[in-house]
Amino acid sequence: MAEARTANRPVLRVLSGEAIAPPPAWMMRQAGRYLPEYRATRAEAGSFLDLCYNPAFATEVTLQPIRRFGFEASILFSDILVVPHALGQDVRFVEGEGPRLDALEGRAQFERLREAGDPAIFSHLAPVFEAVERIRGALPHETTLLGFCGAPWTVASYMIGGRGTPDLAPARALAVSDPALLDALLDRLVTVQTEYLVRQLRAGADAVQIFESHAGVLPDTADGDALARFSLRPIARMIEGIRAQVPGAKIIVFARGSGLEGHARVVPETGADAVGVDWGVDLAALRARVPAATVTQGNLHPETLIEGGRALDAAVDAILAATDGTPHIFNLGHGITPQTPIAHVERMLARLRAGR
Ligand code: CP3
């Protein structure tokens, strides 16, 4: 049965190693503020977290970009920070500023978090699983449904800093002042989020993506391999844990900021099925660097999508040329931004679907 499903879903076929021309497409943050229908539902729902925890509204906004653009994949509408929230940390989204958490500064705050086996964690997240079920039921058959979570380091950096900071100074400072505490936090996130993704897959997600948005800023390590220590190994443990419960689960890892070499290490060192490529990496150079069978995803610059016109056409063509004959999923190199004109998304898809 699983094979029959895969056969009809282009994104799953690519994740199994098939090259499809033109490649199937979706966009990170495809349900978002650039869409008037999103802004309308968001206003009706109340706060951003109210939207995340309301299965009917979350389903509606997840489906909006599929209705409008017919993307080959749909991504569950939620946020990576619902997990710290489920662990008992205070999380709010401040209009125009982004997320704010009560910073985890030391042992006292860590001890107040829920333990990995606490059933309250997954009752808190129950609306997410209900949304996954509803979305899968409402999507066209051929559309792949992606679940997701943040990678342990990225989520931990928000939990420790209480907000996004360019240099992640608080999280890197904790790695020096109390490395055992950072490890305990990463371990808890590995355990809880392994189960979180297993439950999304059981609720109807066809594949999952792990967002390591902060792979470019890591604590120093004695051996100089911070990427392995703080990012790739915790992700590898999650993937092993997920596959032990859901054999053959398809998993994409987006390791933003890890550079050409970091991106090349993602699949071999985590066991992921695909590497999500950020806009800073030369896709042709990466394709030349990895085995031909490696599945890639990405990496149109979100600013090129804002620019539109011939620059956009050329960027789409360059991605097609770089990935020709290889298993690739077309995407942006980071999330779409609110000021992006809808007409540019249409132009991108027309160019892509016309082939080269
Ligand atoms: O991609 C999708 O359409 C699915 C939904 C999704 C959201 N956030 C919705 C969202 C996904 C996959 C995320 C992941 C996420 N959240 C990441 C990893 C990807 C990345 O962008 O690097 C991170 C770091 C977060 C944390 C987060 N959530 C930040 C930093 C912000 C504020 C920035 C912003 O764009 O406002 C959010 C808020 C957020 N998450 C919005 C959306 C649509 C905007 C909030 C709103 O509607 O007011």
From TrEMBL:
<dbReference type="InterPro" id="IPR006361">
    <property type="entry name" value="Uroporphyrinogen_deCO2ase_HemE"/>
</dbReference>
<feature type="binding site">
    <location>
        <position position="334"/>
    </location>
    <ligand>
        <name>substrate</name>
    </ligand>
</feature>
<dbReference type="InterPro" id="IPR000257">
    <property type="entry name" value="Uroporphyrinogen_deCOase"/>
</dbReference>
<dbReference type="InterPro" id="IPR038071">
    <property type="entry name" value="UROD/MetE-like_sf"/>
</dbReference>
<feature type="binding site">
    <location>
        <position position="158"/>
    </location>
    <ligand>
        <name>substrate</name>
    </ligand>
</feature>
<dbReference type="Pfam" id="PF01208">
    <property type="entry name" value="URO-D"/>
</dbReference>
<feature type="domain" description="Uroporphyrinogen decarboxylase (URO-D)">
    <location>
        <begin position="24"/>
        <end position="33"/>
    </location>
</feature>
<comment type="function">
    <text>Catalyzes the decarboxylation of four acetate groups of uroporphyrinogen-III to yield coproporphyrinogen-III.</text>
</comment>
<dbReference type="GO" id="GO:0004853">
    <property type="term" value="F:uroporphyrinogen decarboxylase activity"/>
</dbReference>
<feature type="binding site">
    <location>
        <begin position="29"/>
        <end position="33"/>
    </location>
    <ligand>
        <name>substrate</name>
    </ligand>
</feature>
<feature type="site" description="Transition state stabilizer">
    <location>
        <position position="79"/>
    </location>
</feature>
<protein>
    <recommendedName>
        <fullName>Uroporphyrinogen decarboxylase</fullName>
        <ecNumber>4.1.1.37</ecNumber>
    </recommendedName>
</protein>
<comment type="similarity">
    <text>Belongs to the uroporphyrinogen decarboxylase family.</text>
</comment>
<keyword id="KW-0456">Lyase</keyword>
<feature type="binding site">
    <location>
        <position position="213"/>
    </location>
    <ligand>
        <name>substrate</name>
    </ligand>
</feature>
<comment type="subunit">
    <text>Homodimer.</text>
</comment>
<comment type="pathway">
    <text>Porphyrin-containing compound metabolism; protoporphyrin-IX biosynthesis; coproporphyrinogen-III from 5-aminolevulinate: step 4/4.</text>
</comment>
<keyword id="KW-0210">Decarboxylase</keyword>
<keyword id="KW-0963">Cytoplasm</keyword>
<keyword id="KW-0627">Porphyrin biosynthesis</keyword>
<feature type="binding site">
    <location>
        <position position="79"/>
    </location>
    <ligand>
        <name>substrate</name>
    </ligand>
</feature>
